[in-house]
Structure formats: structure tokens, C-alpha cells
């Protein structure tokens, strides 16, 4: 995304010499690619993430997970239209955008964002806004009330996702002005969601019986199909974030594939060595960890960076999921923090190193001095995201719990959320 903005700034003097009709004509190739990328990113949430999570919960909670992802898709779409897009991308304030596009007023077929129709750009960004809060649901799966979930999503989207999105990607955003590199959402999406997931797992509390009672996944075939859809959809996520069908998109696609593959094999190898058997859940989790970690770096690093990021993500996220959770004793049901939080942090920090031409990258931010300066800026953005997302997530969950219980009762949890909250069953039990 930053590549696209930088390129547009460099071409501005030449564009002024062109006829008005030329300025008003979107690039059809770029438009077609971003339309496809938008569909791919939406595919990541429904059905990709929905199936990925549904396969890992117990059979009595399958519909609840699917319902959460589907409802968040619809809810965030409306919030994005009402005010989210305007506050994230209109105007050039350091903290928030302006109200120019509230309710998308003034938007028409002729409205442009760069060389794209603005409707295409806002729809592409909408799919990012949809998947980010949906990721959080895996941390408290099988125990949160649906009404409390919806309240939390509205608050978190409005006061955490939208401001952070503007800070990094919006015109004038203060983190972007400092030189933070986040090509497709390592900070805005994955660290943000991972930290919120950790906060939610702690605030909601452990599932009854955890960790003494075994809680095996109900259908790992669903999980693998969901992971496969996430993997394919991620090409829209990363390669689409340059907003152009060009060499940068091709390179982003290549490094995404490399990092995901190496992370999947790394997680599989560590699990194989430790438990004597490789598992479907392990290789799927490793692939997603690699996809997460390469996300902030996709448009800035070359093959060497992709290899190191994939290896580090596979090993680091495996350790977080298998050991770190046991050390601290929190019940992050589907390892949202281990995969997205830790993977996002690994990717954001390593972007600061491997974006350097010396290590095969394509250039550091013009606002920093050298590789060391870029690494410090990246580390600062990680710290800001962890503190901001973590504190506000805890505050929102605490407030919701004061007015209405966050989680279902013990009896309701034992019976299962499908029948208790939705009066339906996904299986004949």
C-alpha cells in the first residue's frame, strides 16, 4: 500500500500535464486485480476462517463459531459504511480522518482513490476490517455470550481498529509518518487481533474443565479446508495491498508462498520431533503462522527475508502455542495470540531488518535512517499496538461484564452454545 502511495506522489507533477479526461480514467488492469483481491480477502473470513475455527471446536459449538464469523462480516460492513471508512481514510489528521465520507455521502461511480474507483478501494479495505475482529473470536470460543460478543465487536472496531488503521495507513497518520512499514496488516490486523484475543481469553476465563479435560477438535477436515482457503485468499491480502497489478504484486505473492510453506514445514518438523508424529492441525497452524508473519513484509522483502521470516514464524509460533500458553495458564482456545499475536510481532520486527537492500529488500522507509532506525520504528509500532489494543480491549470487556455477563453459565457451556444460544444443532448428537 505504501508503495502505491509513494509512486502516486512521484508521478503527480507529470499527471498535472495530462488532459482532465486522462486523469479521470481508472487503470482497468489495476481495477480488475483489486476487485479479485477484494473477493479473495472476503473469502478468507467466510468461509475460510469460519471453517478453520469450526473444525477445532467441539461439535456442540460448531454453529456458534460459524455464526460469529458470519454475523461479524455483516455487522462490520455496516459500521464501515456508516463511519469506519471515513474515520480511517478520509482527511489527513494525525489521529483520525474527517467526516467527509460518513454514510459514504458524496460517493459515486466517478469518485477516485488514486487510479482506482473509490468504491473499489473502500471495499478492499472493508474486507480487512471484517477479518480482523473475526480473528479474535477464536481466543474465547465455546464460552462467550453472543450478545456480549456483538457489543465488544462494535466497541473494539470503533475505538481500536479504526484509529490504528488510520495511524498506519491513513493520510497523515502519525505512525505512518514516523516510517512504520506494514504492507498488508501485520500491525493493524494481526498484532492488533492477537493482543485483543489474549485480553479476551484472560478476561472471559478458562473453559470449564480446561486443561484437565480433553477437548479435541471435532473435524480437522474442516480445519484443513479452512486453512487452504486462508492460504489462497492471502494472495489477495498481500499481493492486493499494493493496489496495482505489477511486479510488486508478483513479488508479494511469491514471498507469501515461500514464507507460508517454510513455516508449515518448520512447525510440522518440530511437532514430529517432539511427539513422534506430524499432525494436520500442526501443519495447518504453521502455514497460517507463516502467512501472518510475512504480511507486514510482503511488499518490502525479497526471497532471503521470506525464508527467515517463515522459519522464525514456524518455530516461534509453535513455541507460543505449545509451551507459552502452558507456562502462563491462559485458555486461548484456538491459539489466536500464539499464531496472530506472536506471528505478527515476528513479522513486524523482521520487516525492519529484511526491508534493507543489504539483506535483499526493496528499500527502507524514507522517514528513517538506516536499518537500525527502521528496526526501532518497527519495535515502537509493536509496543504501541500491544499497549493500545490490550488496554482498550480489557476496558471494553470489563465494562460489558459489569452490565451483562461476558460468558454463559456452567450448565449452558456444558450443553453447548449451538443449542443454548441459537437453538440449533450442527450435528445429530
Poorly predicted tracts of residues: 1-23
Give the topology string: H per helix, E per strand. HHHHEEHHHHHHHHHHHH
Number of beta strands: 2
Share of residues in strands: under 5%
Could you walk me through the main structural features you see in this protein, from its secondary elements to its overall organization?
It is a single chain. With 429 residues, the chain is mainly alpha-helical. It has one domain (2-6, 27-422): Orthogonal Bundle (Ammonium transporter fold), CATH 1.10.3430.10. 69% of the residues lie in helices and 1% in strands. It contains 16 helices and 2 strands. The chain has helices at 2-15, 20-23, 28-54, 62-89, 118-136, 146-169, 174-178, 186-204, 220-239, 247-275, 280-294, 303-328, 336-354, 370-403, 410-415, 417-422; strands at 112-113, 116-117. A hairpin with a 2-residue loop joins strand 1 and strand 2 (116-117). The radius of gyration is 21 Å and the shape is globular. The termini are far apart.
Index terms:
1% strand; 429 residues; mainly alpha; Ammonium transporter fold; disordered N terminus; single chain; two-stranded antiparallel sheet; 2 strands; 16 helices
